[in-house]
Amino acid sequence: MRRRAASGAAGDDRQAAARAADSAGCTRGRSPSPCRLIDFCAVWDAGVFLASAAGKGAPSGVPGRRLNEAETLNSVREAQFQRLEAERPRRPGCGVRGPVLRMAGQPPPWAYTAILLCALSLGRAIEIPMDPSIQNELSQPPTITKQSVKDHIVDPRDNILIECEAKGNPAPSFHWTRNSKFFNIAKDPRVSMRRRSGTLVIDFRSGGRPEEYEGEYQCFARNKFGTALSNRIRLQVSKSPLWPKENLDPVVVQEGAPLTLQCNPPPGLPSPVIFWMSSSMEPITQDKRVSQGHNGDLYFSNVVLQDMQTDYSCNARFHFTHTIQQKNPFTLKVLTNHPYNDSSLRNHPDMYSARGVAERTPSFMYPQGTASSQMVLRGMDLLLECIASGVPTPDIAWYKKGGDLPSDKAKFENFNKALRITNVSEEDSGEYFCLASNKMGSIRHTISVRVKAAPYWLDEPKNLILAPGEDGRLVCRANGNPKPTVQWMVNGEPLQSAPPNPNREVAGDTIIFRDTQISSRAVYQCNSSNEHGYLLANAFVSVLDVPPRMLSPRNQLIRVILYNRTRLDCPFFGSPIPTLRWFKNGQGSNLDGGNYHVYENGSLEIKMIRKEDQGIYTCVATNILGKAENQVRLEVKDPTRIYRMPEDQVAKRGSTVQLECRVKHDPSLKLTVSWLKDDEPLYISNRMKKEEDSLTIFGVAERDQGSYTCVASTELDQDLAKAYLTVLADQATPTNRLAALPKGRPDRPRDLELTDLAERSVRLTWIPGDDNNSPITDYVVQFEEDQFQPGVWHDHSRFPGSVNSAVLRLSPYVNYQFRVIAINEVGSSHPSLPSERYRTSGAPPESNPSDVKGEGTRKNNMEITWTPMNATSAFGPNLRYIVKWRRREAREAWNNVTVWGSRYVVGQTPVYVPYEIRVQAENDFGKGPEPDTVIGYSGEDYPRAAPTDVKIRVLNSTAISLQWSRVYSDTVQGQLREYRAYYWRESSLLKNLWVSQKRQQAGFPGDRLRGVVSRLFPYSNYKLEMVVVNGRGDGPRSETKEFTTPEGVPSAPRRFRVRQPNLETINLEWDHPEHPNGILIGYTLKYVAFNGTKVGKQIVENFSPNQTKFTVQRADPVSRYRFSLSARTQVGSGEAVTEESPAPPNEATPTAAPPTSPPTTVGAPGTVSSTDATAATAEATAVPTVPPVSPTTTATTEATATAATSASTTTTTTTTTESPATTRTEIRESAPDEQSIWNVTVVPNSKWANITWKHSFGPGTDFVVEYIDSNHTKKTVPVKAQAQPVQLTDLYPGMTYTLRVYSRDNEGISSAVITFMTSAAYTNNQADIATQGWFIGLMCAIALLVLILLIVCFIKRSRGGKYPVREKKDVPLGPEDPKEEDGSFDYSDEDNKPLQGSQTSLDGTIKQQESDDSLVDYGEGGEGQFNEDGSFIGQYTVKKDKEETEGNESSEATSPVNAIYSLA
């Protein structure tokens, strides 16, 4: 059997796109690129930021008043390499055409409507990158980053803090207003402002009343570019007023009658929490008969005699002041026809009639009457309440008129008496009714719910960053009920009173900017308000002028296997947004079409790599301010192939077997040939010999039988070949005398000595340690140097176990120190003591920097760049580079300069002239070898003409044919790369169907005159423009053409749901197709019953286009059904969606035959009954079976992810299996939103380990696996993208390792550190303790002893008789208790004294009894302070610093405070 797998290199998939300018923009001299918006998208992990934008030119009638189309192209995260079309769509743009663009005076009213529609196309908010190289150069108006909530309630005992933080460049200053007037902080000694912040601090340590500072505050952050505003913050001080003192008479009520005990708590800020207790601090038990309403009142549906056994006190807890107010208790007097409280009647089947209580129909206690109304704000919780009286106690049920209750948001509370709907939306409005019923009848109350809405954002204004001369918009669209009004401000002042700006125009909720300049910078505020609230948003307008920059490393090398697919990336940044083009080997036309595909973000994809594709690819980003270039060198490698594979063999025990594996590979790649046995890495013992093209096994044993896989791999690909070895048994069984001796790891080598010292080599000699009955197989020599990585040991070389002296090759200018580790079958020894140090002398460099290239960033310069040499290639101190250049044609003298960095810019160069370039390395010992000569260029200019005579012919519903006339060659002004068509979907022929107006493009490389545009939407109106493209970018746009696509087939219906509420019916529901592609004429449903492999007759149902529900009547309860649903237009049926009915629990053993006749069906539009719980139950039955693993050890730890990831809970699971001996260590973490690495899994063996992990990076990201053994030897393994799993093959048996995975580009982004241990190569057989006789006997004795003890306890308990139980009595508070009249009390946790009735645990703490209304949740009592009315307020701030004293002193609960303790 043979299988092969090859993997190629992949690049990042970061979006960045650019559009060309129109002729009007060029003639005005502002920019040959179009007016467009800029989107700075941060790539946090790499410290660079991608700029992406899209601009579209509009035909210009009057150059002085031109409104360009604009849209924002969002950069996307890196995607998987396999996703070849991974492009995140841009926000749709729009074009304001015709007379709208030719406004010479006041525009007509309909022009504003077109402008407002266009404003919907703006993209996301723009955030200036935090990269210091860009941030320090860019100015930024203020932006509010942190502020207090609008309704700010503070504790009167604490200092007041009103937050206001802002950022900007330069840093902003702050000031405040109070009640719309300037707040002079300097005049009030209690008020201060934090340094470098606008946060106000009001200090009351020296006295003062917090109420004096109540009011409405607003923060202003200002720098020279504008002023940003905070929300209007309403400051209020929390209040907890006392309960009015009152004397309550006993409440007399007839048994069976309803009763309401009113609470009427004092109003507080915020409102208090209400709960009912008795005067002895016992919580009132609540059920469906007795319950507390939302208003705090206590409702009795019917009173029974037992209700008289306690009193009822309403308590109000105030959150901020930490106090509880207690109302005087109610006492009940129940009149009854049956005066005796016979407890036997409580369990009577008809308790009420047995006690002479008349049964009656329900009536509502709250709300009153049969109907009421309620208003709720959108996004809040809706609470509907119905409390009914009656005998017996009624049951409450809830319904919504004309529909079902929202199952995902609705929940029942208070014994079904309350219905809560969370996060209310407009669709939750309507009529709800509660039904109260008992056996005597029922009654209904209808509640009409109206949903209003405070303002909420539809389009919040976003920061707008433009280049000089560009156009843009700020859009502020909010919705609410009633409709909110919009007010614009600039720098905190109303826009009407601001100085006039001819470049600014206000159109309702949109501000339009034309031909912006540096002076246009400001901060705009949008305030949207109605009677229910307001929204305030800041958005600044900033104007930037930045030449193109390349954000990726220079001169990247990408190696790829022949016939694979790869992608070359070129992220860039600039303002105006640059255009990006690709060249090969510095010349030729733009690469696109055929085997090449250029994405909108500028990435170049080569679909199938060929030998001729090898070379240097140059990406050039240009805008009006200059040009930036970068190069990617692509090397094409031959694939790795096994041309002579191992063959299956049968061998006798003790014989010799040879398995061949001959490989052909690319000679420039390092080949590694490894072997697997039974798909596990093969340990090469001393009985095996691994050669370059074969594996030989001497003295074949039975354990050698199995499958052997030859793995030939390079860093780019691999090939596999497998064979099976069968071992025949032999009578002769040799014995090994040493097998019975215990084996162990070798002792460490000793007495290291350095001899034969030379400039580039040294001889290292050592004395081996004891092998501990297991021969030493290998020695590993490690080194450490003290200049670049002091204290870190690296592997230098490996030698056979028979060697104790070796010559080591050294590098110049390194201070070496060596140590040796011995290895045998059991494991590795401890490292030897280090040798003495030996420093090699320096030398001139032996190589020059790579990836040298010259690219013009402007028309008159050329930037020479290269990849700097690393420290190991420097060979000496003070590394520098000699840069030489000259014009290629002129053959003039060489210019030269010495550079210490990695770039040099040559100025005053002609346009697009080839140069010869050389870069040579030099250090203090001399110069490197003579460098190679590379060719660099400067650049082109934009085309001046657009294609003419553009003709369109519609081919079908999704494709058109284009034809045009070529432009004159002198107008191209460069190499003609392609003719490009820009097209967008203007509208759909279906009414009220929103369409994306995202602009798309189709390129036609070379001097072509026709082409085809495909993948269009059917039944739509389109517009199209054409441009000429050269190496610099796009030319002006042609005349706009319009065309219409005919009707097509629809897409599949959405959200097809199959539910099975019972065994008789199946409910089907679906939504309309996302893309109708025409006028829907109906749906087609095909379904068939099946049972195992037997299938019934297919049934076809046709529905009208408005029907989206259907019910199937099952023929039998065993068979399942397979459904296929598709939508139809006049053209035909579209794509079908297929689902199956849920599997019954006993499907594994079906007995019923498939139905012989089709089942009856019932269409049920509007009356579909389904339960998600049934579907969930059916789904839960399909649980996969996990094979048991024994033994299993699971450990849970806490770990913190480093770098960019936030702290998260990490679970480490280690699973150990007996055969084979493999330990799996895994870090399980929650995946964060930002770039990170998590879920690192290690599967180790004796000498190797497989590593896998998860990450949120895209393709092309390289990683590094770093692991350190118990000898503190640190090793790293670079990992190419998509190279998981990674195998570490140089591990030592029985050693503990720590491991982490981090990004090669940013070491700060790392996984959590994981620890694992390799297994020993040799383990002694250990007897199972469970099979030992002594262990079995011990367990039997313990079991017998436990049985005897249980029998003795049972006999003693039976003879003990009855225990006296002290009867609990109701003891009223005595007159001597000073807290009898108190309305409030303290429940702080200062003294943890156990009282009578409390249960003390073994550790001396008090066990808490479970009670929903217990005051233990709020703390324990302390001393109270009396007020004038006799009540007192107790602070219940929890204090844990006091010792628990007087643990058993109290014997009686003599006060309400002690009664609170008794609840514990």
Number of H/I helices: 8
> Helical percent range?
under 10%
What value does the Rg take, in angstroms? 41 Å
Describe the global form: globular
Low-pLDDT residue intervals, each spanning 5 or more residues: 1-127, 732-739, 1147-1222, 1322-1327, 1361-1464
Describe the structure.
With 1464 residues, this protein is mostly beta strands. 5% of the residues lie in helices and 39% in strands. The chain is built from 8 helices and 105 strands. Strands 1, 53, 56, 57, 60 and 61 form a 6-stranded mixed β-sheet that branches. Strands 7, 10, 11, 14, 15 and 16 form a 6-stranded mixed β-sheet that branches. Strand 2 (39-43) and strand 3 form a beta hairpin.
Task: Give me the secondary-structure topology.
Blueprint: E1 2-6, H1 23-27, E2 39-43, E3 48-52, E4 54-56, E5 69-71, H2 109-119, H3 132-135, E6 140-147, E7 151-154, E8 160-162, E9 164-169, E10 173-178, E11 181-183, E12 191-193, E13 200-202, E14 215-223, E15 226-229, E16 233-237, E17 251-254, E18 259-261, E19 273-277, E20 290-292, E21 298-300, E22 313-318, E23 323-326, E24 332-335, H4 351-354, E25 360-366, E26 371-377, E27 382-385, E28 387-391, E29 395-400, E30 410-413, E31 418-421, E32 430-438, E33 441-459, E34 464-466, E35 472-475, E36 477-481, E37 485-490, E38 493-494, E39 504-507, E40 510-513, E41 522-530, E42 533-543, E43 546-550, E44 556-561, E45 566-568, E46 572-575, E47 579-584, E48 596-598, E49 604-606, E50 615-623, E51 626-637, E52 641-644, E53 649-652, E54 657-660, E55 662-664, E56 672-677, E57 680-681, E58 688-690, E59 694-697, E60 706-713, E61 717-728, E62 750-755, E63 761-767, E64 778-785, E65 794-800, E66 805-809, E67 815-823, E68 838-839, E69 850-855, E70 861-867, H5 871-874, E71 880-887, E72 895-899, E73 903-907, E74 915-923, E75 926-927, ...
Parallel strand pairs: 7-16, 17-24, 26-33, 34-42, 44-51, 53-61
Antiparallel strand pairs: 1-61, 2-3, 4-5, 6-9, 8-13, 10-11, 10-14, 12-13, 14-15, 14-16, 18-21, 19-22, 20-21, 22-23, 23-103, 25-28, 27-31, 29-32, 30-31, 32-33, 33-36, 35-40, 37-38, 37-41, 39-40, 41-42, 43-46, 45-49, 47-50, 48-49, 50-51, 52-55, 54-59, 56-57, 56-60, 58-59, 60-61, 62-63, 63-66, 64-65, ...
